[in-house]
Design goal:
- Helix content is 44%, strand content 0%.
- The protein is mainly alpha-helical.
- Among the domains are: 41 residues, no CATH class; 32 residues, no CATH class.
């Protein structure tokens, strides 16, 4: 590992910082959260809660703010795509939901819009 005299994690790892001219983009680290967000993250990180209850209540809260029927918090884009796909396949059938990831007999074809040329 390269030697570094810096004090931040990136310096310690020998990773160069860049200027983000892309906006929020995973390829450059996602986003830099506002101080209000990092304060909430610090507060939440020092406590323990039942994760299923947290997911349910946070989804309810977000759905209410957005004025939509339901919302579900995920860890990122890939997780949301996976859960959305599973929901399309299993629907509200509790037996199919319980069988996942076994998708035998479920809807299994998806159309995905390709990028325009």
């Amino acid at each position: 590992m390269p030697e570094s005299t810096g004090s931040n994690l990136y310096d310690k790892l020998g990773v160069r910082e860049i200027i983000n001219a892309r906006g929020n983009s995973t390829i450059v680290g996602g986003s830099a959260p506002d101080q209000v967000i990092t304060q909430a993250m610090d507060d939440a990180g020092s406590r323990y809660v039942d994760m299923e209850e947290l997911l349910e209540k946070s989804g309810d809260y977000i759905a209410e703010i957005l004025g939509v029927e339901a919302a579900y918090v995920t860890s990122g884009c890939a997780a949301s795509q996976t859960l959305s796909t599973a929901a399309c396949m299993a629907g509200i059938d509790p037996d199919k939901i319980a069988r996942l990831p076994d998708t035998t007999g479920m809807k299994n074809e998806f159309l995905i819009q390709s990028k325009a040329s």
